[in-house]
Amino acid sequence: MSDNNVVGQAFVWLNDPLNWQGPEGVPALTGEHVGMAVVATLLAAVVALPLGIWLGHRGRGGTITVIIANTSRALPTFALLLIFASTALSFGNRPVVLAAAIFAIPPILINAHTGLLEVDRDVREAARGMGMSGARSLALVEIPLALPLIGAGLRTAAVQVIATIPLAGLVGGGGLGPIIIGGLATHHFGEVLAGGLLVVVLCLAAEGVLAAGQHYLSPRPMRPQRDRGRRNNGSTDRTTSGNSVKTTGS
User: Fold this and answer.
1) Do residues 166 and 180 lie in contact, with contact meaning Cβ atoms separated by under 8 Å?
2) DSSP assignment of 165-182, as one string?
C-alpha cells in the first residue's frame, strides 16, 4: 500500500461524519482521553510534588530523587499495563491511568526538586530575617520562585501522559487508542494514521494551553525577557511621544 493511499484513507476517515458522532465518535473519545490524562497527571502530582518540594526545601535528597526517577523511567509502560490488567484492576481504563501516572512521576519530581533547590540561599535567609517561619518562607517565597520549573515538569508530564494513553486500546481501555488499535487489527492503516494525527493535535493543544498557563502563573519578573522588553519599549515609545508633544507645543 502506497503512502499516498494511506494519507488519502486518513483524510477520508477524518472527513466521515459518522466518525464524529455518538459514543464512539472522535469528540466523545477525545473527552475520555483527556479525562484519563488529567486523572493520571493529578495522581502523579499528588505523589511527586510534595516529595520533590520537601526534598528541595531541605536541600537534600538529590540521590534519592535520581534513583526514584530513573527507576520509574526504566519500567516499560506496556509491561506495567499487562501486569495491572492481570490484577484486581482488570482490563479497561484503570490500569492505563495507573501506568501513565507512574510514567509521569519522574519529570514532576525532578523539576520540583530542582526548582526548590535552585532558590538562592540569600533569598531564603532574607525571608528568615523578616521573621518568616520555614513553612511560610516555603509557601510565600520559595515555591513562587520555583513555579517556572514546577510548571515545566507538570507540562512535560501531561504531554507524555496524553501520548501514552493510546496504549489503552491494547487492554480494552478507551480514549483515542482504540482508533489506532482497531485500524491495526483490520489493516486499515489510514485509520491508524488518522488516530495518530488526532493524538498529535491533542498533545500540541495541551502543550499550548499549559505553556500559556505556566506563563501567566509565573511571577512577572521571572517571565521571559521578550515580554519585559516589549513593555519597556512601550514605555520608551510613550515617553518619546510625550517629549515630541511637548516640543511641538513649545
Assistant:
1) yes
2) GGGGGGGT--TTHHHHHH
pLDDT in tens, the chain (250 residues): 556 688 999 999 999 999 999 888 999 999 999 999 999 999 999 999 998 888 888 776 667 777 777 777 777 777 777 787 777 677 778 888 988 898 899 899 989 988 888 887 777 778 777 877 767 777 778 888 888 889 999 999 999 999 989 988 888 788 899 999 999 988 899 999 999 999 999 999 999 999 888 888 776 766 665 554 555 555 445 544 444 444 444 4
* Full 3-state SS string of 84-133: HHCCCCCCCHHHHHHHHHHHHHHHHHHHHHHHHHCCCHHHHHHHHHCCCC
DSSP class of residue 133 equals -
Backbone φ and ψ for 76, nearest 5 degrees, come out as: -70, 125
Report pTM.
0.80
Buried b (16+ CB within 10 A) or exposed e, 141-177: bbbebbbbbbbbbbbbbbbbbbbbbbbbbbbbbbbbb
